[in-house]
Design a protein that fits this description.
58 residues, mainly alpha, 0% strand
Length: 58
């Protein structure tokens, strides 16, 4: 995996949401929130969605 920095564009309301989630969870970086949300999605995904996710992650 490449650890280079990437930029993503989000709306102002999405940035506020990310900042609120960071404060609630004691996180520092936006990427931590993104990982938290991805982990939550996978935890709640169906078996079919998890298989698709794993294929796309390869």
């Amino acid at each position: 995996m490449n650890n280079t920095e990437k930029n993503i564009k989000v709306s102002e309301i999405q940035k506020k949401s990310i900042d609120a989630i960071k404060m609630i969870n004691g996180l520092t970086y936006d990427y931590e929130v993104i990982q938290l949300l991805a982990d939550k999605y996978i935890a709640e995904a169906s078996d079919s969605e998890k298989r698709k996710y794993n294929v796309f992650m390869e």
